[in-house]
Design a protein that fits this description.
Elements (H helix, E strand, L loop, with lengths): L12 E5 L5 E5 L4 E4 L15 H6 L46 H13 L6 H15 L13 H15 L9 H15 L32 H18 L29 E5 L4 E5 H8 L11 H6 L2 H29 L24 E3 L8 E3 L1 H8 L10 H6 L3 H13 L1
Antiparallel strand pairs: 1-2, 2-3, 4-5, 6-7
Length: 417
Amino acid sequence: MNPISFFPGKMTVTFRKGPSGHLRHETSDGTAQDNPVGAVPILSFQPPMPASATAKEEPHPLMDTDLRGVAPLPISSSPRAARTGPIKTGGLVQVLDHGRWTAPMRAAIDGLLAKHHGAKALLKRVDAEYAAMVQRACTDPNSLLHPTTGQHISRYVKHLAKLKNTSSSLNTSPEKVLETQQLWQSLTTGSQTVCVPVTTLPPATVNPPAVAPPPEESLSRATVEKIVSEILQKQQQQQPRQERKVPRNCLSCGQPKSRYLGDGSTVHFFFQSPEVKYFYCSTRVFKMYREEGLKDPRMSFVDFAASPFFARELEAVKERSAAWKKVAEERAKRKSAVQLPTGRLCRFCHQPLKQGPGSPHVHACFPDTPGKYIYCPSRVLSLYKDMGMVKEMTWMEFQQSDFLEAERVRWVSGKRS
């Protein structure tokens, strides 16, 4: 097998197959070692040196120990392990919670807590001193003082308080038990113990029978009819009573317009066609056409429809209907044309107080006077008409007039009152 050389000029590694079937790697210094299949040898290389230096130095193994290819441990801690940053967050060291503290950590923190017991800012002092201890011990690779924070120390103090359990009603701490025993002994000194006999009652020889559920009663026909009648009666009471409509009376005779509710002294009839609706009252027709030859005050509608007066009545009804439709249309037009103002209205001119194109009001303020002033031209004219104001002014004209100061004084006094 031909040898394979890596990194010529520095060091030569030759792989040969040994008698056991494993690969053997031989270095240029003559040492050899068997490796199992798949194992990767650990190589250590040295930079090239001059020929005079190599000739003087003798070849030596990588280590004096039996473990070849393994770098020796450093005498001091490595720079990576030494924390270069702040005490609480330095380096790559993991901060431990109080549940994972080592025994030296717990002992050190317990000593610091006892040292600063009762002092102000206890946690800060303990944290600072413990951080200094960790910083001093960081050069020792075998030190068990790991970093922690003030928050973890606070949790540890709370954990100790829970273990003592001094504020709980179910207190089992040794201090509380001793205090309870002393209190009980002080209360029971000099008292006498009284024994009371206890009598045990034997169980009953005869057990009472179990109470059976009452048998279901079958409903008879009369009972069902009674229940249904009660339900219907309740429903009728709950339903609102519909008020009976009172029929309208005829203005001519005073009788109801219905043809069936009158006393028979007059005849009523409702006539309807595609063009007109007509209400016939014999008393009204008799009063209207008596002078023209109508003689029967109780003439039936069939006889009246055959007379020439019926056509005149229909024409009059059509004229009245057309006039009423015209009046209704005019009212609808006026209602749609007139738009009632929305929002707050002025108490004087009854126009919207909101400033806009449809409102004469202007929202402004007086100089050197806090507050919003709403200018109403009609109100200002009524106030200062006796003082010489002739017409309504715009806000720009009112600002240039002599009435501005008087209005400002009046408005400020009104606000204070």
